Please model this.
Amino acid sequence: MVVGDFAKEVDTLVIGSGPGGYVAAIRAAQLGQKVTIVEKGEVGGVCLNVGCIPSKALISVGHRFHNANHSEDMGIIAEKVSINFDKVQEWKASVVKKLTGGVEGLLKGNKVEIVRGEAYFASENSVRIMDEKSAQTYNFKNCIIATGSRPIEIPAFKYTDRVINSTGALALKEVPKKMVVIGGGYIGIELAGAYSNMGAEVVVLEGSKQILGGFEKQMAKLVERRLKKNGVEFKMEALAKGVEESETGVKVTAEVKGKEEVFEADYCLVTVGRKPNTDELGLEQIGVELTERGVVKIDKQCRTNVSNIYAIGDIVEGPPLAHKASYEGKIAAEAIAGEKSEVDYLAIPAVVFSEPELASVGYTEAEAKEAGFDVIASKFPFAANGRALSLNEADGFMKLITRKEDGLVVGAQIAGPNASDMIAELGLAIETGMTAEDIALTIHAHPSLGEITMEAAEVALGTPIHIIK
Model:
């Protein structure tokens, strides 16, 4: 301990202020704990600053620009529509600033102390928090680690001004004329869609036979078809081998189905996954168990093998979803307070803000059968919904998965406009043990996309009104 470093005492220390950390800190404070939150970067973490929020802002810009240029069939003829990308970035930054400022205000309003710096464990009950100028020891009764994840860097594709990760893609100073995207997961597909909508020529290199591997093939194909219509080129079973960089662009070499191809572009965006930020915390110092991938092992209350240390979000098993991190943050804070809260991931939604949007919750049809359920898969198309037609968004469908014996809703998948909003009703249905009949008997507003949920439930019951059985 350095001279003058008198340890500060807190009940709960939270490391990381992303959607897991700040939610955990607020809930812990609500439960009467004295809380300090540590952040080495910006409050709000990756999600608010360089992830979920800014990417959705760019996606919205892309939609508006594309719609302005492609709404002739609705009678809208636009001329000389252009993008001022400096203004786009300025607006995007304003959205981020509002949210991060709001989060900081919420933390302070709940009397959570915010400390800037990097945390390193000195013992099971203390950390050293360091910035460029000083170091301070904090002693804690309990600690919640919420340090998130970072993009994986491929050895042959070191990040530069032209070879970029998702953070770089959100901070570009121009709309690329051409872009190569390595990886057809949700990040790559969302950004490919955003920039292609803004006029970029995009090539996606995907190592497997399908983009968006976490979703059903029919859903992924719908997105692929829409993006192709918008000019995006897909190269499946493609292995990126290397890149040559110049001041003005890149040449990406890839092996596509056994043949070497070269792709020239302004930028190469690498989106091949994320890795947990667990390697610079000193976890080995205190004996916290990790997997070979650096993921922290936890129990159902998000507790590690060290009883007063908890871990949540991207650094634990499961998909790297902001809402999962927030959920786990509440569980950990409540567990520390002595409540019997436990994680239950049955109804955790997964969403891709692609074109069209994809959303899934609970079991897919295949997963339900693997789990031993005898299920009915009931589909209803967006093309049979009045609101979807009036939006000129008729592509897509909802698939409702119900148990055959009693109609219990066990899963749902949606491909279509506003899928990200519509999936919430299905998550609630699963959490509360609703049946297809419960949904069918609930009056849904007309005309609305929400009616599709009611219609799918009626298909499950064998009594659909707006499609022929």
User: Anything to note?
Assistant: The chain is about 30% helix and 25% strand.
